[in-house]
Amino acid sequence: MIRVTAIETGKARMKTAQRTGRDGRGGFGRKVDIFRDPKWVEPLPILCFLIEHPEGRFLVDTGDTWRNSVPGYLPGWNPFYKQVQIRVAPHEEVGSRLLAMGIDPAEDIGTVILTHFHHDHTGGLDHFPRSRIIGPRTNFAISTGLRGMMTGCLPQRWPIWLRPDLVEMDGPAVGPFPTSHAITRDGRILLVPTPGHVDGHVSVVVRAEGVTYFLAGDATYSQANLLAEKTDGVTNDPATALATLRAIRRFAAAEPTILLPAHDPEGPARLAAGSCLV
Length: 278
Fold this sequence. Notes:
Blueprint: E1 3-14, H1 16-19, H2 27-36, E2 44-53, E3 56-60, E4 84-87, H3 94-100, E5 111-113, H4 119-122, E6 132-136, H5 137-141, H6 145-150, E7 165-167, E8 181-182, E9 189-193, E10 202-207, E11 212-217, H7 223-227, H8 238-254, E12 257-261, H9 267-273
Parallel strand pairs: 3-5, 5-6, 6-7, 11-12
Antiparallel strand pairs: 1-2, 1-4, 2-3, 8-9, 9-10, 10-11
Family: Belongs to the metallo-beta-lactamase superfamily.
EC number: 3.1.1.81
Protein name: quorum-quenching N-acyl-homoserine lactonase
C-alpha cells in the first residue's frame, strides 16, 4: 500500500508576474516584470508531501521556516527576497506538522527528496538530522555560494551537517521524460527531469495502486497554468519550461495521474478526491 499526504507549511505570496510570466518575454525580461508588478496573488500554500511506502517514509521537499520573520535571516542586499512574502508560524513548520500526525521527523522519516534547493523547499531541513537527503546534482551545483544566494537559495542557512546524496538522472526513459532515477528498489518512487523553473529541477513520480502521483515541485505553480501552457516568471529558459509542461501533460495522458505542485491551493483537494489530470 502506498499513500501520499499533503502537508501545508505556511503561506507564500508572490507577484502576479512571478506566478505567470508574460508570453514572449525572455528570462531577464520576466525578472524586470516581477520587480515592476504592483499586484500580488492571494496567499498560496507551501506544500510538502509525505509518501508512505513499504520501504519506508519519504518526504518530498521540506517547506519553509518561521525564521524568515527574523531580521537578517534573508539577505537584505538581494532585492529578490522583497518580491516574495513568506509567512510561517513556528507550529506550521514541517516538523511540527509531522509530530501532530504522530511522526517524529528526527527518527521516522527515512528519506527526504528535494525537487530543487530554493529556500521555500529547504527551509525545514533542520528537522531531519538523521534522514537521507536526496537532491539533483545539477541543481545543487547552481544553488551554493553567491550564485545560489542570488537566485533564491540560502546555502548559508542550511544545516551544518547537510551532505545531500546528489543524484544524476541516470536511469531509463519514462514516457516523454528522456531519463529517470529510481528511489525505491521496486521502482515505484522515481525522479524525472523537469527543468525550466530552474536548471536541474526534478519531479517525483509515485506509482501507487491504480493511480500515479506527480509531485511537481515548482515545475508549474498550478494545474491551471500547466493546462494553459503558462510558464512562470522565475524561469531563465521559457522554452525549456514550456517543454516540461508539455511533457507532464503527455505523461498524464498515458496513465491516470494526480498533479501535485508545491504551491497549488487546489492540489490537496484533488489529492483527497482522486482527481486526475486530463
